[in-house]
Each structure stands twice: as structure tokens, then as C-alpha cells.
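@channel sequence for tomorrow's demo:
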Amino acid sequence: MFPTASAFLGRQLIFNGTTWPSIRGTFFQRDSAYFAIPQYSDQLIATVKTQFYQIVVNRELIKVQEAIGELAGQPIEGPAKSL
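C-alpha cells (generated this afternoon):
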């Protein structure tokens, strides 16, 4: 049983029955994906920078804690008293 001509009125069929609105929808999806790439790469770069700086800060904090530990083991020297 074949569809009648009235079933196709108002819809332009292309290739395997795909219509223009659905093709335009795929164009929108393609464009959205294309413009999402720079946003994703910018976010990735920002994350890497943040993690790098956090490592640098943590390393410096460790150095400060080690210096405090070394100073805590030394006797406290006050100013020399002169009489």
C-alpha cells in the first residue's frame, strides 16, 4: 500500500524522507558543537593553570613549615645585653 499524494502535501521530502526542519536541526547541533570546542579548551587551560599554581603554593607552604620546624629546634637568642 502506497501513501497518497495528500499525505505528502506541505512537506518537502529529501532523500530518505528527511525534511528540511530536521536537517536544520542537525545544522544547529553541528554549529553548537563547533562553538563549544573553544569554550572547552579555555576551561581546560584555566583548570591546568589553577592546578599548577596550587602546586606552587603548596610547595612554598611546605618550605615555610620546614623552616618553622628548624627554627623551633634552635635555642632562642635574644639581643646581647651590654652593661
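heads up for whoever presents: Residues 72 and 81 are 23 Å apart (CA to CA).
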